Amino acid sequence: MQSRSSDIDAIRQVVNQVLEVHAREEGAQRSQARAEILIHSMQVFAQRGLQRTTVQHLLDASDVSRRTFYKYFRNKMDVLESIYRIFVDNMLLHFHKEVKLAGSANDIIRNTTKVYFEYHVSMGPIIKLMMEEARSSSSALAPHRMRAQGIASEVLTAQISRFTGRDYDPLVFRTMLWMLENYSLYIFDDGGFSQERLEQCQRVAIGIAESLVLGEVTPGMLERHVAS
Q1: pLDDT digits (tens, 9 = 90+) for 135-150
Q2: Could you tell me the pTM of the whole model?
Q3: By its UniProt entry, which Pfam families does this protein fall under (predicted)?
Q4: Residue 121 to residue 176: CA distance in whole angstroms
């Protein structure tokens, strides 16, 4: 089990990496104060939930003044939206990397599915909170979710078609992404993480995708695994 300090260090690495990319794209200078607010706010949201979190909780956790906070954010929802954008953009970075390294359609399906689940698990309980919030059409997080799904489904359509020679409807891959999204929520069901559910969801998701997209599935991929 990682310590809280190592958890923060892992989150800091992700946040700084993505904010550096954003700064280059926008021609701006990355603010470390803004980064620290985002880093420490993740822990607060994960522990308290969205409704029970206040701006004061975020100030206390990040050890910044109210003036500094409002220099970068309008409210707590603005913070959560920024965290979610970082999550989405980093997920897409991992996703593109796996697609480029793949040598077959099977590689794309298996590697992107595994990296999807691994990344969700590495981010911890805040993932469930953000994903549930992003599924609401009225949420500020919803456009980022739709953007990510659109990009991912287009990449999958083009790259898997390149290997198979088939012409897929992008909705096929968007449907698979919806399935993965539901599975990742299921992994954190009942307020905790389940390694058994992770392995089950990963195995079944790959089996369904290979069966649907490639017309094949590894024997046993969809069968129930009973512990001996």
Answers
A1: 999 999 999 999 999 9
A2: 0.84
A3: TetR_N
A4: 19
| Number of domains within the chain | 2
pLDDT at 226: 59
Q: Check whether residue 91 and residue 62 sit in a common domain.
A: no
HSE-CB for 199 with a 13 A CA cutoff? 8
Residues 15 and 60 in one domain: yes
- Domain check: are 39 and 109 in the same one? no
Range of the domain at 53: 4-76
Query: Which one, of 218, 18, 223, 203, lies nearest residue 114 by Cα?
Result: 203
Tell me what the pLDDT averaged over the chain comes to: 86
Residues 99 and 112: beta-carbon distance below 8 Å: yes
In a domain, 226, yes or no: no
